[in-house]
Design brief:
By secondary structure, this protein is mostly helical. The protein has a domain at about 500-545. It is built from 21 helices and eight strands. The strands form four sheets. A two-stranded antiparallel ribbon has the order 1-2. Strands 3-4 form a two-stranded antiparallel sheet. α4 runs antiparallel to α8 (about 170-190), α4 runs parallel beside α20 and α9 (about 195-210) runs parallel beside α20 (about 460-475). The longest helix is centred in the first third of the chain and has 26 residues, at about 1-25.
Length: about 550
């Protein structure tokens, strides 16, 4: 119960901080109507308070990092400022009994995951040290030379660093859960409250997909969301990616998009790009569809002064990428600046090759059947998950055919199917690990319902609540429930290993782990032995890492 209370208090603070962001946007004339009546794609704005604040916090943090190291109190200062904005727009909170029940169930069950969740492997590999660099130094130029994984630095790291005190990592877990919590409630709103047949049907498909995740070969995994080890953000990207695609389909179906919906859609696009390069594919496809639908009007809508400010954040984000790795998008070699002193030509290609080899990525123009055999032989998990994914997709398609009638597939719907196929091919070509494909597989599920027209059999809200609760119940590992019964009033502490040992690197900056492990945990001077030999320089008060052969 203690951990549930802790999670609740954090959600409460994030909620009112997020509401304060919208009040601020209203006072700054970014929003032209009363936020109390504001909807985004028919969804009440309060469902987006938490996610919006975290996006806002991450962007403020990375902008400040150009000039200062990230202070411990930054999140408190920003949070308090935006909480105070609530007093400029005080309204009564309307309580929906089913939404309140769904919120309580989701909060409680998700919080139980804390009992068995620990730090991910990548936390010790580079995430925690990346956070420490942010708190210790202004943006470090060429940091990817010390460890190439720093080149992947995501906006999620700039969110998470605000909740990392390097003592107890519980808050980091809660931030990950916060995104899942918001996604779950939006899905519940779709099935129980929304009048949109697409929102209702696609959300039911997602819930059924989640339930089926527990049945099948090798334990039943089918590519659904999971509660990950601390510092991983695959599920965060997945839920943001799926929401974006749901909103896109809604625009395709209704052919309507108001100014604020476009503004928030662009916010989501930029956030997805900042999370992971796959977000670029979503953004390009979305803008293409919007251009087809709205033509010249779209140009006027996008390039107004409010939206142009958003592109400023994206441009500065790419500048940050160049400073850290030498590339606009790491590790895409064609985006790298070969003349920069902190970039070694071919470094990004080397990392790409490492990823491709370790994940058994598809190689263009090779026999796809031979590759598939090669990839599935890597481990039984790949083959069983593909089987479960295929079976789940088939069952959900049958569910659609039984309970829903459909419109004829038009050009726009066909283009979305093609887009999903391209996403799957992109995943297979770049990084065919299932945790990188969660958002793509969920998008495959919602694409089944892109042309639904009506529901043949309607259910009451209680049935929807039961289906929703069953899905949520199966997301935490079952061992969490038995642990909770034994330790329900225990204060949870999640810590890094104590007293790891290090040795000096030969002919290079810093140290490495004494046992030659990749994981350095919390020591910014540490990097794996396979990292390049580098030298450290100070240029105009900025730390710069340069490969020694440069």
């Amino acid at each position: 119960m203690v951990v549930s209370l802790q999670f609740f208090l954090l959600l409460l603070l994030l909620y009112f901080s997020g509401r304060g962001v919208f009040v601020f946007l209203s006072k700054a004339n970014f929003i032209e109507e009363d936020i109390s009546n504001l909807h985004i794609f028919t969804i009440p704005i309060n469902y987006f308070y938490i996610i919006t604040f975290l996006i806002f916090l991450g962007n403020i943090t990375f902008l400040l990092h150009f000039f200062i190291k990230i202070p411990e109190t930054l999140v408190l200062v920003i949070g308090i400022i935006f909480i105070l904005f609530n007093f400029l727009n005080i309204k009564k909170i309307k309580l929906n009994i089913f939404v309140a029940a769904a919120s309580t169930v989701t909060l409680f069950l998700f919080s139980l995951s804390t009992y068995t969740t620990g730090l991910s492997y990548d936390a010790g590999l580079y995430h925690l040290n990346n956070h420490l660099w942010m708190k210790t130094e202004k943006i470090v130029i060429g940091l990817s030379n010390l460890h190439m994984r720093y080149g992947y630095s995501s906006i999620y790291d700039y969110i998470a660093v605000n909740f990392n005190n390097f003592d107890n990592f519980l808050a980091l877990h809660f931030i990950n859960l916060s995104f899942l919590f918001c996604f779950a409630l939006i899905i519940f709103y779709f099935v129980s409250e929304s009048k949109s047949i697409f929102f209702k049907s696609s959300s039911l498909g997602i819930l059924i997909f989640g339930i089926l995740d527990n049945f099948g070969f090798n334990g039943g995994k089918n590519g659904f969301l999971e509660i990950e080890g601390i510092t991983k953000y695959d599920s965060v990207f997945a839920v943001s990616f799926v929401l974006g695609n749901i909103f896109l389909i809604n625009v395709m179906r209704n052919k309507k998009l108001d100014k604020f919906e476009l503004f928030y859609f662009l916010v989501l696009c930029i956030f997805l790009i900042q999370l992971r390069p796959t977000g670029i594919l979503f953004t390009i496809f979305s803008l293409l569809i919007f251009t087809i639908l709205f033509r010249i009007e779209l140009i006027d809508m996008i390039f107004n002064k409010k939206n142009v400010l958003l592109f400023f954040f994206l441009i500065i984000w790419f500048v940050k990428n160049i400073l850290v790795s030498g590339c606009i998008i790491f590790p895409v070699e064609v985006t790298c600046m070969q003349d920069l002193i902190w970039y070694q030509s071919g470094y990004a290609n080397e990392e790409n090759l490492n990823i491709s080899n370790s994940l058994r990525s598809y190689v263009l123009f090779t026999n796809p059947f031979e590759w598939f055999d090669y990839w599935t032989n890597k481990n039984s998990y790949n083959l069983s998950t593909i089987k479960n994914l295929s079976f789940s997709t088939l069952l959900i398609y049958m569910f659609k055919k039984i309970f829903f009638s459909s419109k004829k597939v038009n050009f726009l719907y066909l283009s979305f199917y093609l887009y999903v196929i391209l996403l799957i091919l992109f995943w297979a070509y770049t990084a065919p690990d299932f945790r990188f494909g969660i958002g793509i597989f969920l998008t495959l599920i919602i694409s089944i319902f892109v042309n639904v027209d009506s529901m043949k059999l309607k259910f009451n809200k209680l049935i929807y609540f039961v289906i929703f609760s069953l899905c949520i119940f199966t997301i935490p590992r079952f061992e969490n429930y038995s642990t909770f019964l034994k330790n329900s009033f225990e204060f949870i502490e999640i810590k890094a290993p104590t007293n790891p040992k290090y040795i000096d690197k030969v002919n290079s900056y810093g140290v490495t782990s004494e046992d030659d492990s990749e994981q350095c945990w919390i020591n910014i001077d540490c990097s794996p032995n396979y990292s390049p030999n580098v030298r450290k320089e100070i240029i105009n008060s900025y730390t710069v890492f340069i490969q020694k052969n440069n």
